[in-house]
Amino acid sequence: MPKPVYVFSSGRLGRLANTIVLETEERKRHLPVEQVSELYLFGEVDLNKRFLEFAAQKGILLHFFNRFGYYVGSFYPREHLLSGYLTLRQAEHYLDPRRRLDLARRFVAGGLENLRRLLQKEAAKGKRVEGVLELLEKLLPQVDEAQSVGELMALEGRAREAYYGAWEELLGQDWSLERSRRPPKDPINALLSFGNSLLYTALLAQIYQTHLDPRIGFLHEANYRRHSLNLDVAEVFKPPLVDRLLFRLVRRGQVKAGHFLREGEGVFLSEAGRRLVVEEWEKTLQATYRHPSLRRSVSYRTTLRLELYKLEKHLMGETPYAPYRMR
Amino acid sequence: MGDGDLPLEPPPEEPLTATLMGYYGVCPREAWLMGHALEPYPDHELLALGRLLQETAYREERKEVALPGMRLDLLEREGEALVVAEVKRRSGQREAHLLQLGYYLLALKRLGLEARGELRYPEERKVERVELTPDLEARVREAEEALRALLKAPTPPPARRIPACSGCAYFEFCFVEEVEDA
Ligand code: SF4
């Protein structure tokens, strides 16, 4: 099974026969190409067109992060799986306002439902989150009544704001969260932004293995230059995968003040901090459980792909999309 | 039957691929999905295995011939008769293999070529001789029509659990669903 490779050091990426060669000051690493699905590039990495052609030919995605660890963008090789049938179905669901709204509602409802489930688990552990839970109970039925994508976004925004307001209760004073994105102004924002970009890119890599077009999202505005379908699906998985991961890191005392650097207005993760999050993230995606309908053991990375299958079946008119439910 | 007696007929409107016919014999849903270019997850081990087998088995005798919608696995001359061989891993889906091979033979017949076939299962050391009997031809023609109609349907036939599912690359796609909490 090919796996993502995370590159923290700086150096040169090249090709030698069927291997990817990563040359850094200290050493030369050879990665057999069939073992690599994606390359995450955090350091200053030089590469040339020949290398990009090689990556494209082998269907390897490249994800670029700047020196602050902010996601810059991905190299998404030309589609190797194309189905005109499915592309038309996807476009049709985007162009028809009724169908688009229906899908957008499903993503928002899925995300809010998982937030609710996550908070219920926290409440069971004795955390005082009744206020947010009540708000979520109130907002959830409104999702089905929202008449536009804009309304849905506003609903989602309200829920998230209240939810983030509860992080102080969940994680303690040091980790109270007031969302700030560009740049993140404190450690928890830096962690959250980084964690979310790992989810966006992991989803993008799974979309590459399907016939879906990542540029056509339903909740997030389709944009011919940017990927948006992965942002839609991410709504559903942020609470169970990213948020829970951050909770674990904070509660186990694994993230420390030393993992963050300050520059100007912004706070970002040091290399050690990024390594820590990436390691936990890989563990999360590789963890397996018994899938209730497949009755087979599947990983959470596969779960992301399964979500896309459900979406494909929705677009094909087979089964309405039911978002993944956190358990 | 001499060459002159072979009734030539125009090829059907759009060539179906013989592979689709093979899938159809196993599972109509699989044929529909493949027919709409919805190939399954490419990393699936079984697919890789199948490809490897096609590339390595009987390498020496192998000749490839391309006809519209199909690429014959192997074509050799044995005296005068053409022999079309189809190599498969397991004989478990023999009926489907028979349909696919019959489809090749019918396609050749439509071009005015008489041929016989062979189903080969190298892993099981089995070779079966296949003739395009009137019975097989009727079954192939029937399947051809049914497949054509199936491919026109706007959605695939629903997934039903059959023995082939457990080894099928579409398994996850077909059977993933969100189960309500118990
Ligand atoms: S998993 Fe079963 S139903 Fe689905 S395509 Fe394969 S054989 Fe057909």
UniProtKB/TrEMBL annotation, chain A:
InterPro entries: CRISPR-assoc_Cas1 (IPR002729), CRISPR-assoc_Cas1_C (IPR042206), CRISPR-assoc_Cas1_HMARI/TNEAP (IPR019858), CRISPR-assoc_Cas1_N (IPR042211). Keywords: Antiviral defense, DNA-binding, Endonuclease, Hydrolase, Magnesium, Manganese, Metal-binding, Nuclease. Its cofactor is Mg(2+); Mn(2+). It comes from Thermus filiformis. CRISPR (clustered regularly interspaced short palindromic repeat), is an adaptive immune system that provides protection against mobile genetic elements (viruses, transposable elements and conjugative plasmids). CRISPR clusters contain spacers, sequences complementary to antecedent mobile elements, and target invading nucleic acids. CRISPR clusters are transcribed and processed into CRISPR RNA (crRNA). Acts as a dsDNA endonuclease. Involved in the integration of spacer DNA into the CRISPR cassette. It comes from the Bacteria. GO terms for biological process: defense response to virus; maintenance of CRISPR repeat elements. Mn(2+) binds at E156, H220, E235. This is CRISPR-associated endonuclease Cas1. GO terms for molecular function: DNA binding; DNA endonuclease activity; hydrolase activity; metal ion binding. Homodimer, forms a heterotetramer with a Cas2 homodimer. Belongs to the CRISPR-associated endonuclease Cas1 family. Its EC number is 3.1.-.-.
